[in-house]
Specification:
alpha+beta
Length: 164
């Protein structure tokens, strides 16, 4: 990438992209990542390449590193068949295989079978937390709990004012 292309990219980023945990417009420009391999990122900082350890694992999305041949091959294979299919009313072999493996890996209780026999696949931590809260509430109601009102716990998770 030449300097003009890089400047255009950075300008567009500054004018249009709102990065997490920052203000808009940003007070500082983000570093441009040139490449990534293993645990290292190669950044462009003032025209020079700096290599840093990605200790954040890109917010937990790259916990196994970058350019890992086995993971890259699996992703390439999957993209060749289908990149993404919504899960509402549909299923596919990779999801079934992943669910089965997660159940197999779940800790065992006092019996031979794990008490964790169900899997919900989510695309982010916030969705996983939201669904876990909804599942807990559904279980509460299905077990005879009261469904009305707004409890302190529910208020705490939804920013709804607590009842007095």
């Amino acid at each position: 990438m030449n300097t003009v292309q890089e400047t255009l990219l950075r300008d567009w980023d500054r004018d249009h992209l709102w990065h997490p945990y920052s203000t808009f417009p940003a007070t500082t420009a983000p570093h441009l990542v040139r490449s990534a391999e293993g645990v290292r990122l190669r950044l462009d900082v003032d025209g020079e390449t700096h290599e840093v350890v990605d200790a954040m694992s890109s917010w937990w999305c790259a916990i196994h590193g970058y350019a890992v041949p086995e993971l890259d091959a699996a992703a390439h294979d999957q993209l060749g068949r289908m990149s993404h299919v919504m899960f509402g009313g549909l299923t596919h072999e990779p999801a079934i295989r992943l669910g089965r493996r997660l159940v197999e890996l779940a800790p065992r209780g006092g019996s031979d079978e794990s008490p964790l026999q169900h899997v919900f696949l989510a695309d982010s931590g916030s969705v996983a937390v939201e669904v876990a809260l909804k599942m807990a509430w559904q279980h509460h109601v299905a077990s005879g709990g009261h469904a009305g009102g707004c409890s302190r716990s529910a208020a705490a998770t939804t920013a709804t004012p607590s009842p007095r």
